[in-house]
Amino acid sequence: MEKVKVAVAGVGNSIAYLLKTLSLKEEPKGIWHQKVGGMEVKDIEIVAAFDIDERKIGKPLNEAALTEPNVVNLNDIIVGKDVMVQRGILLDEISYFARDKLRVTKKETPKNISKVLEDSGAEVLLLTISSGLQKTSEAYAEQALNAGVSLINATPSTIASNLAIVKKFEEAKLIVVGDDLMSQFGGTALHRGILNFMKLRGISAVKSYQVDVGGGLESLNTMDEGLKELKKNIKTRAIVSEVGDSYEVVTGTTDYVEFMKNRRVSHFWFEAEGLLGKKYTIDLLLTTEDAPNATNILLDVIRAVKHSMKKGEYGAVDEICNFGFKKTLNQESIELAVKEFEKKYCF
Ligand SMILES: NC(=O)c1ccc[n+]([C@@H]2O[C@H](COP(=O)([O-])OP(=O)(O)OC[C@H]3O[C@@H](n4cnc5c(N)ncnc54)[C@H](O)[C@@H]3O)[C@@H](O)[C@H]2O)c1
After folding, report:
1. pLDDT confidence of 254, banded at 50, 70, 90?
2. Which residues contact 74 (CB under 8 A, 6 or more apart)?
3. What CATH number matches the domain at 4-182+292-345, 3.40.50.720, 3.40.47.10, 1.10.287.3510, 3.60.21.10?
4. Cβ(151) – ligand 1 distance below 6 Å
5. Which end of the chain is more exposed for a tag (fewer CB within 10 A), N or C?
6. What's the gap in Å between 12 CA and the centre of ligand 1?
């Protein structure tokens, strides 16, 4: 049976949940797509891992995934016990807000990253490092290129939507997909879904907003004004792609609430117009957990990348980018994105 070998950079909450899912002996409940590119979930193998937190470096991956500052409440992770977490790349400043939560000693590019990738046999590098690390993300992309490994960028750094970087992957006949993972049933997906449904039922969306509060390192990171703005722009662009450029929307994370841990609460408000300008409004509250909301997308995207590699595809594959990510080069509606992904990969 075909396998896909994956290296991860950033052993945070979303990776902990991914490892937990891969560790289950029985068929995991709630898997979105049983088979992608002919592969099952158990065909995903994690072969290497990088982090920059001193508490995680040198630990087996399954233990590192349950180490602070991770907040997911999990146990019995078996997958990753034979993979030691290695020191990763850091070229940017850690956000002022996250500094106290991370134990980082130095900014550097360890010399052996592409060698570790090569020696591990990794076919894909999954980038799940903290957001706001653009130079670092680019350096990981360079190392993936050097090692002949494809790249999945779950972070909001501009990688798979950067034409110059995409060109390098095309020249190396490798795949690069991203940017900024779109959670399976998170704020952006639901926001887009409701706008899509209004269109389907023939009423016109006029304006909406979505404000989130959450816990965990990633929400804390987002308290940085620059990063907040970057994430807000990505979400806005993804939402507007459902209804048109003139659509009025405000969206983004508004606060960090430590005790919420991995939970996120999103408050939405929508206004739409029907016959003779009749107004419709929706008030909605969505409570989710970030890490499990990422897992199905990661499982699907990893297997899809492998299938596309086998078919000889390279560059930023639209069907994968639009299905799994918020910021893509050729954005399309959420409904079409799922249909096209399933048509190409779900068999
Ligand atoms: N639902 C989701 O979880 C979701 C949705 C959209 C986007 N994302 C993105 O995925 C990424 C991971 O999310 P998360 O919730 O798992 O994050 P997290 O904060 O739980 O974990 C991030 C991990 O990356 C490590 N790290 C930071 N800089 C690093 C570096 N330079 N090299 C190696 N490791 C580094 C940290 O030590 C930590 O272990 C973030 O960029 C986030 O924006 C996640």
Report:
1. confident
2. 16, 17, 20, 65, 66
3. 3.40.50.720
4. no
5. N
6. 5
Contact 163, 303 (CB under 8 A): no
How many angstroms separate the alpha carbon of residue 324 from the centre of ligand 1? 16
Q: CA 325, CA 332: separation in Å to the nearest integer?
A: 11
Expressed in angstroms and rounded, the spacing between residue 16 Cα and the centre of ligand 1 is 11
d(CA 318, CA 297): 15
Q: How far apart are CA 206 and CA 203, in angstroms?
A: 9
> Ligand 1 mean position to 181 CA, how many Å?
11
Cα-based distances in Å from 20 to 12, 44, 155: 12, 13, 21
Residue 120, phi then psi, degrees to nearest 5 = -75, -15
Q: Which atom of ligand 1 is nearest to the CA of 64?
A: 39
Whether 98 is in the pocket of ligand 1, judged by its Cβ within 6 Å, is no
Per-residue pLDDT for 271 more than 90? yes
* Cβ neighbour number for residue 128 with a 10 Å cutoff: 22
| Distance from Cα 238 to the centre of ligand 1, integer Å | 21
| Residues composing the chain | 347
Instruction: Pick the atom of ligand 1 nearest to 94's CA.
Output: 28
Instruction: Give, rounded to a whole angstrom, the gap between the first and last alpha carbons of the chain.
Output: 15
The CATH T-level fold of domain 187-289 is: Dihydrodipicolinate Reductase; domain 2 (3.30.360)
Q: Which residues pair with residue 49 across a beta bridge?
A: 8, 85
Q: Is the predicted pLDDT of residue 108 greater than 90, yes or no?
A: no
Element (H, E) at 214: strand 204-214
Pocket test for ligand 1, best of 8, 11, 13, 14 (most atoms within 8 A of CB): 14
Give the tens place of pLDDT for each residue, 317-335.
999 999 999 999 999 999 9
